[in-house]
Structure formats: C-alpha cells, structure tokens
Amino acid sequence: MVIGSMRIMVEIPGNDNLKGKRRVVKGLIERLRNKFNVSVSEIDHLDKHQIATLGVALVSNDAAFANKVLSQIINFVEAYSDVMLLDYMIEII
Description:
Elements: E1 2-11, H1 18-36, E2 39-44, E3 51-60, H2 63-79, E4 84-92
C-alpha cells in the first residue's frame, strides 16, 4: 500500500474577507475531489484572507501512479484562475 500526500499553499489575490476565501477554497476543493478522486481539506491559515493551505491524500498500490496523480493536481492548481500557487510539498510513503 502506498500513501501519497501533498501540502499546497495558494494565494487568493484581491480577496479581502473570509467569505470570499471560503467560496474560492470550497470550489477548488470540490473540483480536486471530483476530478482526481482524492481527499482534500483546508489544513492551515484558516484565519488569513488571502492565503490557504490544503492537504491532499490518496491511497494506491503503485508509487508511480500516486506521484503522477499528485503532479497532475499541481498542474491543475497552477492553471486554476482564482488562485496562485505559492508552494507545495509531495510525500510518497
């Protein structure tokens, strides 16, 4: 069993309240869950208006597949128009 996890930090440019952040983050989380069949949650910077940190996890039987899916998620987040990718960290166990 292989566990792939990732921490993604994004900026929400131009946002000035938590309601707007919640709208953007919730939309991104739902798209990631639906498109990639992974578990996603906001895990840090809960009280910041313009920064969000998401945790992503998946279970697979192949490390290469887990790495491929997590890399595709990074590409998806980079192309997502409402956020700007600041940093990410991938870990395969």
